[in-house]
Amino acid sequence: MSLLLFAALFAAAQGTTVRATVDKNKLLIGEPVLLTLIADIPENEPIRFFYIDSIPHFEFLEKPAIDTTNTAEGTRLQQVIKITSFDSGHWVIPAFNLRDDIFTDTIPMDVVFSDFNPEQDYHDIKDIMEVTPEKEKDKRWIWFAIGGGVLLLIVVLYLVLRKKKPVVQAPVAAIDPYEEAMKGLEQLESAGADKKLFYSRMVDIFRVYISKRKGIHSLQKTTDDIVKQLKGLPITRDQFEKLSQSLMLSDFVKFAKYEPTREDDRKALDAIKQTIIEIEQLK
Are 31 and 65 in contact (CB under 8 A)? Predict the structure, then answer.
């Protein structure tokens, strides 16, 4: 009887265990971080894993498939997710639940602009140095020079204005925002620019277009802010998803050193073009 009781207690102690870890708790804005999720599940329990749709203040860079390994106690499930953040501050990766009574620990994270080295030499502010004034000199020549310069300027202005005729400027034709945007995207596509320059210029063209066409001013806003503003645009849900992915990809290229493929470039440019076309058709 005691042996059976001991076996039951031992089996209960060998229940499902989970953990979440990161390879660093402090990162620069846009720097990738590896978030590792592990679940060890005994043979007598059903196989399940975490479902993570989003993490506040963080964005997914890569979310690979879950690795499954058979162990002596049962099954180990593991997933290594590459994440980053573009929001500076102190944040906490929340606990993830495998079921109602099994959670990972929370993980504190610091997102900073640049590293601070507390061991760096401190340079104090220097005292004010006394400056010995030069001996007073005869400065009357300065007034003569100023007077001569003013007189010369008056003569030159008189000669120029006497002969100058008013120039009638031709009215500048207003450029249609749609034509301006499409022309800019075509030039960008054929220019073969550097990847960062390509994505930065592509997003700028779109920002200027929606500012002129829809009054949505987004030049000083983050990608998340822009996506929230654009939810009211008259475009299909599928096109909105493609546009959002293109804008996020631009951030990854500019800030996270992501290397996009030519196919990525083409899809992103097509998404921007098609969004502009749909807005024009439904305006």
Answer: no
Q: For each of the chain's 283 residues, which pLDDT tens digit applies?
A: 443 333 333 343 468 999 999 999 999 999 999 999 999 999 888 888 998 889 999 999 998 888 989 999 899 999 999 999 999 899 999 999 988 889 999 999 999 986 555 566 655 556 666 666 555 556 677 888 888 888 888 888 888 777 655 555 655 557 899 999 999 999 988 887 788 889 889 989 998 888 888 888 776 777 777 888 888 777 888 988 888 888 888 888 888 677 888 898 999 999 999 999 988 887 6
Distance CA 141, CA 265 (A): 67
Q: Which residues pair with 37 in a beta bridge?
A: 20, 79
Domains with residue ranges and CATH for the chain:
15-112 (2.60.40), 177-282 (1.20.120)
Decide: helix, strand or coil at residue 110. strand
Q: How far apart are CA 21 and CA 80, in angstroms?
A: 10
| Strands 26-28 vs 107-112: parallel, antiparallel or unpaired | parallel
Distance, in Å, from the CA atom of 256 to the CA atom of 260, rounded to the nearest integer, reads 11
- Full-model pTM: 0.42
Q: Are 66 and 41 in contact (CB under 8 A)?
A: no
Query: To which residue do tokens 């290229």 refer?
Result: 253
Handedness of CA 85, 90, 96, 100 (dihedral sign): negative
Residue 98's H or E segment, with its range, is strand 97-99
Closest CA to 212 of 233, 235, 181: 181
Q: How far apart are CA 276 and CA 212, in angstroms?
A: 12
Asked whether the beta carbons of 106 and 92 are under 8 A apart, the reply is yes
Residue 93 β-bridge partners: 107
